[in-house]
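Lab meeting tomorrow. Please check the following:
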Amino acid sequence: QVQLVESGGGLVQPGRSLRLSCAVSGSMFWSYAMGWYRQAPGKQRELVARISSGSVTQYADSVKGRFTISRDNVKNTVYLQMNDLKPEDTAVYYCNFPTPGGSPGWPWGQGTQVTVSS
């Protein structure tokens, strides 16, 4: 069974940057699209960035131009570089395989908390 381990979150001031990592166990990582999701308090979990198996990227409008998703198929890891962070980016961030229907393809990991506050 695939396991997802997110890391790299923390408390940062507005305008600063963070880089999140997600280590994915199991084989065939290279063949899967991957996504970064986030869930803010009282809100539904949302997909904010997606990268295909061929490294084509897509972003939610709220993070476009500030966040960059990338992947390392040797390390079985997907990254989210977050620049110019805003208080509204505060959330628990998760990675997963975004199925075509929109549902996550694997069990969720523990996530990593990102808090943007002055």
